[in-house]
């Protein structure tokens, strides 16, 4: 008698192994034999339980429907065995044929041994996971399965995941499938699971793989150890590559915002020697105009709502350009000989605009729709996700750069701007209307700030103070890049953006700003006129 | 430059400052004494006026606009706060809030010795001198000036603000430092202490005013004006302007530091807000409104603007930014010399073809 538990385990494991190796669905199921085994000794019951679990994993639809109530009946002891087979006492159905009948003679309700109980519970959970109608029941069943990943029959989770309609639960099932395969009994299966894991390197798979180092097989099985180690190495490489790409990508998107904020400043500064402290507020107003366009579309043409970011482009540009032209014509025109006073004047404008918006719209962040073209992203490698909202900013900056270059290089206005930038008096002498050029250039610079506000509205929070966050970085871009050169602004924006993003993970955002500032001060020692100074007389 | 004995606005202002200080001292304790709030407000205004003088010295007389003078103000303020906290800790044993907040058992090592005021003063002077010296040297050596200099100083103060907002620096983080109990062994918050601080601020203001007046009235002052008006010519004539600019810049930073040391015990708190670019810009606004290049104007501008701000922050806090921006626009367009234009009725026609403003051209 003492041998019985051992035998039962042995038989159970053997049967389990056999069933795992050869899917039960391949052979016709002997239902009567299964019922007989469920009514048999402990060893036979264990065998039956494993067979039921395998059935849940890979049986046909009809077989599964037939077998589903059996494990629960065995657990709840509502299975009555008699001479003619067995009866499900709950409902009074024959276990084999499901015809109504009562138990004959003195029925015996088999008791599950401690060893068998988990097997039956698992089988029951497996059936529930695949067949229960409600998501919460399936989720509860998944919880039970999670406790014994080693017992889960092959194919169960894959099948369940395929049929699962709830996205969240589906992801959970797939997760469990991965870790179940990692903990499978068969070493080949485990190695295959490791290989599959490494195809998608990220931090989660790394923790899963490093967890395997404490596995017993790691010490004993050389092939397994090698698989784990090469897997870890591959995942680490993937993560490092992904992190590097993510840093570059974030730096690029920050640089494009910086560029858009600074290009208007640089044009105005190069032309008139005026730093527009209200540039940040023009960016903010660009974002608010974008929001207004979105609200307008929402009430007038809801079908076009998704395209508000594109439709707002002319509005954001024209509104901020108009503000800029008004500012130039009413205020800055009188201050060209007094650049330091123009700093104060533009600060007054910035204060005014910021508080005006605060009074009109309140201080809270604006709520923006996220259209499909700035939602989500493509996971590339490691933890690097190629997000569309950042891509939008980058693409927007590239287009802006191209257009600005075209305006400055290819249009009569651009020619005039360049002439006045190089030598105002000489340009005036040959008949260029310098005041008009100033005004138009100021409008252009301000409009570019408005576009910057539009481009950053899907990424950053939009509120009356938002301009302050960009303005000082934008100054630094202008100082570093040099006066009035587009190339200088691009290079300086890229440099400052990348350095900020590179230093940030090492020492934090504040240190990044400190270091960038010190580098700029140091740089000015070497080139006081900036990176790409226009050759000419020093002003 | 007008001889001191004939500079009547200046003498009147000086007399008024000393007179108010004297009156406050004599009336203290009598029923005619000023209310605690008013005395405190006068003291704070005086500290701001000292700050305005510091900026006027370099902007008005040297043509260098700093949009980062809040940095030196903050150095003085922080050092004073450190002295006050350490001194209060030694006298009364109260542990500062920020130590408890950070869960630290003891003061960081660099707080050692701050319970001695002379040492604290020495540290304040040394730190201010070091920052101003190094920054001024590298900037003036590469002849960074004008708008460039202004926005780099603004970036400097902005970065300092970000730095002080961090809680792990040991300077109170974003909550700043407060809870000062004792100053020079005397309890703070009594009306006697408030009056004494206000009088001290007024006297320091008067002293700085006289000192600056003597400086700009001297031969050195003439050189400063020459540097402001045409530095290239002065250099061609053989003057080394680097040392001159550096010296005045450091002096100005030290005056701003003094203002910070006067300000903090009166307001009872210091936090990184004093490092915000807005405050540093506002200093320039006080000077511009009062009259750039006039010492008395800077003082009057600081006193007036801040008095209105004190009053409006109770009466109508929302409209203050609009009033301030309107004032700035008015000053830069109509009164290029601020209130000094108003004093001499030298109104400028803002849209006229030959604006008197052109007389005030600045070198870039």
From TrEMBL, chain A:
NCBIfam families (UniProt xref): urea_trans_UrtB
The Swiss-Prot or TrEMBL record describes its family as follows: Belongs to the binding-protein-dependent transport system permease family. LivHM subfamily.
Would you tell me the protein name for this molecule?
Answer: Urea transport system permease protein
- Subcellular location as annotated: Cell membrane
Instruction: Give the residue range of the signal peptide.
Output: 1-26
Bilayer topology: Multi-pass membrane protein
TM spans (from-to) = 254-275, 307-327, 339-361, 391-408, 441-462, 474-494, 506-526
The record's keywords, sorted A to Z, are: Amino-acid transport, Cell membrane, Membrane, Signal, Transmembrane, Transmembrane helix, Transport
Q: Which Pfam families match?
A: BPD_transp_2
Q: Which organism is it from?
A: Ancylobacter polymorphus
Automatic annotation (TrEMBL), chain B:
Kindly give the InterPro entries that the UniProt entry links to this protein: ABC_transp_permease (IPR001851), ABC_transptr_urea_perm_UrtC (IPR017778), LivM-like (IPR043428)
Kindly list the places in or outside the cell where this protein is found, as annotated in its UniProt entry: Cell membrane
Identify the keywords attached in UniProt to this record, alphabetized.
Cell membrane, Membrane, Transmembrane, Transmembrane helix
The residues that cross the membrane are 37-59, 71-96, 116-140, 147-165, 193-216, 242-263, 283-307, 319-339
Coiled-coil residues are none
Where on the tree of life does the source sit, at the highest rank?
Bacteria
Membrane protein topology class: Multi-pass membrane protein
The record's NCBIfam families line, in alphabetical order, gives: urea_trans_UrtC (TIGR03408)
PANTHER family, per database record: HIGH-AFFINITY BRANCHED-CHAIN AMINO ACID TRANSPORT SYSTEM PERMEASE, SLR1201 PROTEIN
Protein name stated in the entry: Urea transport system permease protein
Taxonomy, top ranks, is:
Bacteria, Pseudomonadati, Pseudomonadota, Alphaproteobacteria, Hyphomicrobiales
């Amino acid at each position: 008698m003492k041998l019985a538990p051992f035998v039962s385990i042995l038989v159970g494991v053997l049967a389990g192994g056999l069933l795992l190796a050869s899917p039960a669905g391949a052979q016709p199921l002997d239902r009567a034999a299964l019922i007989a085994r469920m009514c048999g000794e402990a060893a036979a019951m264990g065998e039956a339980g494993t067979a039921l679990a395998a059935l849940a994993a890979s049986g046909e639809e009809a077989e599964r429907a037939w077998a589903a109530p059996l494990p629960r009946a065995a657990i709840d002891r509502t299975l009555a065995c008699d001479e003619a087979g067995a009866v499900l006492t709950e409902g009074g159905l024959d276990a084999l044929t499901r015809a109504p009948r009562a138990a004959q003679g003195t029925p015996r309700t088999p008791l599950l041994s401690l060893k068998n109980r988990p097997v039956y519970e698992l089988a029951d959970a497996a059936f529930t996971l695949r067949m229960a109608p409600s998501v919460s029941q399936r989720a509860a069943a998944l919880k039970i399965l999670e406790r014994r990943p080693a017992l889960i029959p092959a194919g169960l989770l894959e099948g369940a995941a395929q049929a699962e309609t709830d996205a969240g639960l589906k992801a959970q099932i797939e997760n469990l499938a991965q870790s179940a395969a990692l903990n499978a009994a068969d070493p080949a299966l485990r190695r295959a699971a490791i290989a599959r894991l490494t195809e998608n390197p990220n931090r989660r798979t790394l923790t899963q793989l490093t967890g395997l180092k404490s596995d017993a097989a790691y010490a004993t099985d050389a092939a397994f150890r090698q698989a784990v180690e090469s897997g870890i190495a591959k995942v680490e490489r993937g993560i490092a590559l992904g992190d590097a790409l993510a840093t570059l990508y974030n730096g690029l998107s920050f640089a494009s915002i910086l560029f858009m904020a600074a290009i208007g400043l640089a044009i105005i500064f190069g032309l008139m020697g005026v730093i527009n402290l209200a540039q940040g507020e023009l960016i903010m107003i660009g974002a608010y105009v974008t929001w207004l366009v979105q609200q307008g579309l929402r009430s007038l043409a809801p079908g076009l709502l998704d395209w508000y970011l594109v439709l707002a482009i002319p509005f954001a540009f024209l509104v901020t350009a108009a503000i800029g032209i008004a500012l130039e014509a009413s205020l800055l025109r009188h201050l060209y000989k007094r650049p330091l006073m123009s700093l104060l004047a533009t600060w007054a404008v910035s204060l005014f605009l910021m508080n005006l918006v605060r009074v009109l719209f309140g201080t809270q962040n604006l709520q923006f729709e996220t259209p499909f073209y700035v939602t989500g992203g493509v996971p590339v490698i490691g933890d690097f996700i190629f997000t569309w909202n950042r891509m939008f900013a980058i693409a927007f900056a590239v287009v802006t750069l191209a257009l600005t270059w075209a305006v400055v290089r290819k249009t009569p206005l651009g020619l005039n701007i360049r002439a006045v930038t190089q030598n105002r008096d000489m340009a005036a002498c040959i008949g260029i209307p310098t005041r008009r050029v100033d005004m138009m250039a100021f409008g252009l610079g301000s409009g570019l700030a408005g576009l910057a506000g539009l481009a950053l509205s899907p990424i950053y929070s939009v509120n009356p103070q938002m301009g302050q966050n960009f303005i000082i970085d934008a100054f630094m871009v202008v100082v570093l890049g040099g006066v009035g050169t587009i190339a200088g602004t691009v290079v300086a924006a890229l440099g400052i953006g990348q350095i900020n993003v590179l230093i940030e993970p090492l020492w934090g955002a504040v240190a990044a700003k400190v270091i960038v500032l010190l580098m700029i001060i140091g740089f000015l020692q070497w080139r006081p006129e900036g990176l790409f100074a226009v050759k000419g007389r020093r002003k | 430059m007008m001889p001191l004995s004939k500079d009547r606005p200046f003498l009147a202002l000086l007399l008024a400052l000393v007179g108010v200080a004297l009156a406050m001292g004599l009336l203290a304790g009598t029923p005619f004494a000023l209310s605690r709030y008013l005395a405190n407000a006068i003291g704070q205004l005086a500290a701001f006026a000292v700050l305005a003088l510091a900026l006027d010295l370099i902007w008005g007389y040297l043509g260098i606009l700093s949009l980062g003078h809040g940095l030196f103000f903050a150095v003085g303020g922080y050092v004073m706060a450190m002295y006050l906290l350490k001194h209060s800790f030694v006298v009364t044993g109260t542990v500062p809030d920020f130590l408890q907040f950070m869960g630290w058992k003891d003061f960081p090592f660099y707080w050692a010795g701050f319970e001695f005021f002379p040492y604290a003063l020495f540290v304040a002077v040394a730190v201010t001198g070091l920052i101003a010296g190094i920054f001024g040297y590298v900037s003036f050596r590469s002849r960074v000036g004008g708008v460039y200099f202004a926005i780099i100083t603004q970036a400097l103060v902005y970065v300092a603000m970000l730095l002080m907002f961090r809680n792990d620096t040991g300077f109170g983080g974003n909550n700043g430092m407060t809870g000062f109990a004792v100053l020079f062994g005397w309890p703070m918050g009594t009306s006697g202490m408030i009056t004494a601080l206000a009088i001290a601020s007024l006297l320091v203001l008067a002293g700085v005013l006289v000192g600056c007046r003597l400086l700009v009235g001297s031969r050195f002052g003439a050189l400063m004006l020459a540097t402001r008006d045409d530095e290239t010519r002065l250099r061609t004539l053989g003057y080394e302007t680097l040392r001159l600019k550096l010296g005045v810049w450091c002096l100005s930073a030290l005056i701003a530091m003094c203002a910070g040391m006067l300000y903090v015990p009166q307001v009872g708190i210091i936090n990184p807000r004093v490092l915000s670019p807005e405050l540093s810009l506002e200093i320039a606004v006080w000077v511009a409104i009062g009259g750039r290049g006039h010492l008395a104007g800077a003082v009057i501008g600081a006193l007036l603007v801040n008095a209105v701000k004190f009053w409006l922050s109770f009466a109508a806090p929302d409209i203050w930014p609009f009033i301030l921006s309107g004032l700035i626009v008015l000053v830069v367009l109509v009164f290029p010399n601020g209130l000094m234009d108003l004093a001499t009725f030298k109104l400028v026609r803002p849209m006229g073809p030959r604006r008197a403003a052109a007389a005030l051209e600045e070198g870039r």
